[in-house]
Structure formats: structure tokens, C-alpha cells
Amino acid sequence: GRRALAPASQAAMQAMERNGAEVQVALVNVADSAAVANALGEVRRSMPPLRGVMHAAGSLHDATLEQLTPEHFRDAFDGKVTGAWNLHETTRQDTLDFFLLFSSAASVFGAPGQANYAAANACLDALA
After folding, report:
1. Are the CB atoms for 60 and 106 separated by under 8 Å?
2. Can you name the residues that pair with 101 across neighbouring β-strands?
């Protein structure tokens, strides 16, 4: 994630560790390809083989269609689309069991004030 774990996430991680899982937390902006490569390089060096990716990034920056700016689209696309692409590119050599991308029904149905978010999710759907 990009931010420190919320208390509920911290508690869930501790519960997994009590049940025998080894959990590593890394603060990484997935829109930064070098940061993704560094983080996954550390995973490859210090953990068993990577078997799957779950990508659940999203950022809302709502505005009416007339008020949308390139920044609104950049905010929506960076974590969701650029992040998914960076994870895809960085894990191409791994033998993955799954590569899971979390999209939104907004890509099909739209949502008031969220044209940028709907577009980002449609791109994510196409990548999948």
C-alpha cells in the first residue's frame, strides 16, 4: 500500500501471523515502476516464490464532466491502471497461480461525477 496499515488491517495481519503466515508490509506507490520492481525484488530475495498478485488500488477524485481536468484522470489512472500494468510487467517472469485485478461496476454502469474513475476501471477491465 501507499500508506501505513490502518488499525483493522494491522489486527488482521497479526491474526494471520499468529496462524503461521509470514507477512511483509511495504509502502509502495504502484504507479512508480522502479518502486514496484524494488519491492518485488525484495520479496523474491526474502520469501518463497511469488504465487499470486491481488491489485485493489483505487482513488476517487470526483468532478462533473465539465469540471474534469487531466489531474482528475491522472489520479484515477495512476494507482489503478498504471499500477496494474507495472505489476503485470514486473511479474511476467514469475509462475503465478493468479493475477487478480479489482475493478468496479462503474466501468459498465458509470457513476455520477466519476467519469474518470469509470474510464480507469474500463482500462483495467481491458488489461485483464
Report:
1. no
2. 55
Query: How far, in Å, are 20, 41, 69, 102 from residue 45 at the CA level?
Result: 20, 6, 41, 27
Quick one: cell of 41? 525484488
- Contact between 97 and 54 under an 8 Å Cβ cutoff? The reply is no
pLDDT in tens, 80-112: 999 999 999 999 999 999 999 998 888 888 778
Distance CA 110, CA 100 (A): 22
Sign of the Cα torsion 74, 126, 57, 34 reads negative
**Buried-state track 11-42, b at ≥16 Cβ within 10 A, e below 16:** eeeeeeeeeeeeeeeeebbbbbbebbeebbee
Percent pLDDT > 90 in the chain is 59
Please check whether residue 27 is in contact with residue 1, taking contact to mean a CB–CB distance below 8 angstroms.
Answer: yes
State the amino acid at position 27 in one-letter form.
Answer: L
Stated pTM of the model: 0.85
